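The methods section describes the discrete structure representation at length, but only in general terms. The central task, working out the structure tokens from the amino acid sequence alone, is never made concrete. Nothing conveys this as quickly as seeing an actual entry. For illustration, here is how one protein appears when written out as sequence plus structure tokens:
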Amino acid sequence: MAILKKSEPFIVPSLAEANSVYGELLAKRIDLNSVMSGRVAEQRRLEKEIAADTSREVRPSIAALLGDAPGSKALNRKRLAEVNSEIKDIESAMRILEQRIKDAHTAANRDACAILKPEFDKRIAAMVNAMRVLDAAHRDFDDLCGAAEAEDIRVAHIAPKPFFLGGAREADRRIAAYIREAGYAV
């Protein structure tokens, strides 16, 4: 007795696939994270080089006045200051980008739901049809139990009653409640 057939697989789109603006923002976040990783790695490398450099430190402007080439320690400090500034800028950009992603999420979600709605409707209809069959079987089972009880036959040890479905004749039984919630007539 095959009441249900297996649904065809449905691939749920990501929010980025459903909404190109959202997808572009996520791609930008990946790019910024990549740039940030590079800058942080450079920052750590420069800090280690500065700490390991035992030469006397002479500012590049003083070295120029003396006619000397600027020392590596001074050049590393200058580059470290630039990298630190870039890291702060990237952090600020990431905060703004996260807010834009948050703002775009609602529209992306709406677009994804529009793509999903036909499949949801199809599957809800299949569930409702199956629930109607179950509801009828539940009423038939309840009728059988009622007839047995009328003859003073105790059937509890034969099979458990499906109490989780609620009473078979109640208007607010669980199956009927879901069918109504889904927008179908009971």
